[in-house]
Amino acid sequence: MTKNVSAAFELEQKQSDLIEKKLERIKYADDLIVDLTVRVKHEQEYVFDATANFRWGAQAHVSGKDFDFGAALNKMMDVLDTKVKKEKDKIQEK
């Protein structure tokens, strides 16, 4: 899986490390996801947007936002993990 993380501001090293650590949560889907793009914006609150492209052409777009960096990331990861599991289950049924 190809990962691309971009931010509309300068990420601190610990923030980049936290994103990488959280993305390990979907490591079980490495063979299902072709690429994953994560975008981070920070205005009044942190906004995480992620787009996952699956091998079979499906795409999942999720987001999470909060005033806390870690909380926004966790919200996005919760939704992403759920979407990936649903896609995995769908493809295994076929």
Describe this structure in words.
This protein is of the alpha+beta class and 94 residues long. Helix content is 38%, strand content 35%. The chain has two helices and four strands. It has helices at residues 13-23, 69-93, and strands at residues 2-7, 33-42, 46-54, 59-66. The chain has a four-stranded mixed beta sheet, with helices on one face. Helix 1 (13-23) packs parallel to helix 2. The longest helix has 25 residues, at 69-93.
Radius of gyration (Å)? 13 Å
Shape: elongated
Strand percentage lies at 35-45%
Give me the side-by-side strand order of the main sheet: 1-2-3-4
Poorly predicted runs of 5 or more residues: none
Helix percent reads 25-40%
Number of helical regions: 2
Q: Characterize the main sheet.
A: 4 strands, mixed
Structural class: alpha+beta
Mean pLDDT: 93
Order of helices and strands: EHEEEH
Measured between the Cα atoms of the first and last residue, the distance is: 22 Å
Question: How many β strands by DSSP?
Answer: 4
Short description:
The chain has 94 residues and is an alpha+beta fold. It is built from 2 helices and 4 strands. 19% of the residues are buried.
Please render the helix and strand layout as text:
Blueprint: E1 2-7, H1 13-23, E2 33-42, E3 46-54, E4 59-66, H2 69-93
Parallel strand pairs: 1-2
Antiparallel strand pairs: 2-3, 3-4
Keywords for this entry:
94 residues; alpha+beta; 4-stranded mixed beta sheet; elongated
